[in-house]
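Work Package 4 report. The design task specified in the project plan requires that, given a folded chain encoded as structure tokens, an amino acid be chosen for each position. We show below one input record used in the internal validation round.
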């Protein structure tokens, strides 16, 4: 697709709630056209729609149709249902942003594999799971900015994620590896959840890679 930082992209963010709205707000500030894809009964913040002319809410199918890039920000348990509602997205880039903090079991949902199997899309990666929603909106500034990570087999999708992370204000977006490293990336999300929620350090914590 040949995207560059100054090109406005059409981005669908699938899901309701704080994570999807913070992603929508930050990417709208960066100048992208945002389509929040919702099931009929799901609400979206009126202030978000009023404040940003480049954000609109619609059905999941319409959002996916309008977008070149799709960010799946629904709970893990709803991934399959949402993927079926996307329609024909075989040629589009899909970013799985659903964090899974539950213990891994035999019926563990590998969200990237599930999305690939249902949609037939090949450019599917995992990212935006190792930070709280406050960090998605305000990742810091310059040398103090947080880092982001991406995992998956698609180099094309990874490059897009790196551009979006930069647009959102993250210092770096590091390549975590291919599909087989996605469970490690999800373990980082569990590590974050343990510190932020279980150990009560608060959600304004994130990861920063320091080189010696």
């Amino acid at each position: 697709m040949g995207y560059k930082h100054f090109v406005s992209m059409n981005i669908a963010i699938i899901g309701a709630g704080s994570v999807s709205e913070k992603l929508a707000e930050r990417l709208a500030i960066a100048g992208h056209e945002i389509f929040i894809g919702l099931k009929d009964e799901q609400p979206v913040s009126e202030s978000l729609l009023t404040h940003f002319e480049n954000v609109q809410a619609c059905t999941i199918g319409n959002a996916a149709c309008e977008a070149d890039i799709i960010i799946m920000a629904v709970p893990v348990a709803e991934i399959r249902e949402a993927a079926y509602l996307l329609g024909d997205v075989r040629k589009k880039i899909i970013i799985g942003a659903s964090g899974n903090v539950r213990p891994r079991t035999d019926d563990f949902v590998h969200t990237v594999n599930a999305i690939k199997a249902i949609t037939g899309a090949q450019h599917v990666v995992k990212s935006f799971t190792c930070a709280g929603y406050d960090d998605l909106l305000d990742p810091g500034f310059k040398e103090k900015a947080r880092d982001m990570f991406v995992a998956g087999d698609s180099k094309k999708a990874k490059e897009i994620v790196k551009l979006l992370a930069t647009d959102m204000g993250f210092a770096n977006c590091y390549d975590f590896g291919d599909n087989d490293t996605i469970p490690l990336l999800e373990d980082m999300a569990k590590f974050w959840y343990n510190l932020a929620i279980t150990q009560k350090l608060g959600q304004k914590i994130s990861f920063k890679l320091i080189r010696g």
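Helices lie at 18-29, 46-51, 60-66, 79-85, 111-119, 133-137, 155-168, 182-198. Validation will be extended to a larger panel in the next phase.
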